[in-house]
Amino acid sequence: MKPTLFILAAGMGSRYGGLKQLDGLGPNGETIMDYSVYDALQAGFGKIVFVIRHDFEQEFRDKVIAKYKDHVDTDVVFQSIDALPEGYSVPDGRTKPWGTNHAVLMGSDVIKEPFAVINADDYYGAESFKALADFLRSVEGKKNEYCMIGFGIENTLSENGGVSRGLCEVSAEGYLTGVTECHNIRYENGKLLQTLADGSDASFPEGAPVSMNMWGFTPDYFDYSKTAFLKFLAGHGNELKSEFYIPTVVNDLIADGTVTLKVIQTPSKWFGVTFAADRPATVARFAELAEKGVYPSPLFK
Predict the structure, then answer these.
(1) How confident is the prediction for the chain on average, in pLDDT?
(2) Which pTM does this prediction carry?
C-alpha cells in the first residue's frame, strides 16, 4: 500500500495578506502545493488528502483539486472551530481554530495507512519527499514508529524577517528527544539570533536541525491525538487563543516512551512565502527550477 500525503491547507495566511495556499507562484500559475504534490507522486505517494475550511471549498476545488484528477486520488476534509468531542463547545468569543494537531485529527476517518503531514505553503524539495516515502513504506503494518524531516536552520530562513522554527533535540542514535518552539530567528550583524519569551535576544545554534512541520506517522497517531485533545480541552478548552500543536503531542508521546521518532536530515533548501515580500524571490526560484528542467512546465498537463 502506498503512503498518503496529508496537506494542512486550512490556515488563514494572515501575515501574508491572503490565501497564499491558492497563490500561483510557478511559471504557469502553480501553487507551492502543486510542487509538493508533484514531488510526492515522484516519491511514490498514492493519495493526497487536504484539510481546508468550508468557506473556500469551491475555490479550492476549482483551482487546486481539479488539476490533479487525472494524476492521483484526492480527498478533502474540513477543519472547523466547532469540530469538538461530544460534551465540549466553543467558548464565547473564540474565533481562532484549534491548531495543527486538531487539523490532523480531521483526517482520522479517511486515512488508514502510513501518512505524511506537511504545510500547504512550504516548499520542501524532492529529496525530502523521497526520504519520507521510503520511511513510511518501511513502517507499513507497524505502530509507534514515526519520523520527521529535519532541515538545517540555515536552509529555512527568510531575508524579509525573523521566522519561528521548532528546534529539534536529537539523540546520538538519531531519534527526536524534544522540539522547542523558537521565535524571530534571523541573522543580525552576521550572528544567528532568536528572541526569547521575555523579549531579549539570544544566540541560536548554527547548523541545528529544525522542524518545518514535515512528519511521518502511522494511523495509531490519530488514536493518541484524540486522547491528547481531550486532555488539552480539559486544561485549555476555555481559553480564546490556545492551540493544540503537533510538537506538543509528539513531545509527550516521546517523553513517556510510547513512540520513537526518527529525525531524517534533508539537504533540501526550504523556501516559501512567510511574508508578502518573500513572493518575488519564490517566483524567481520556481522559474529557475523550470528553466533547469528540475520540474516540467506546466507541472500537471
Answers:
(1) 92
(2) 0.92
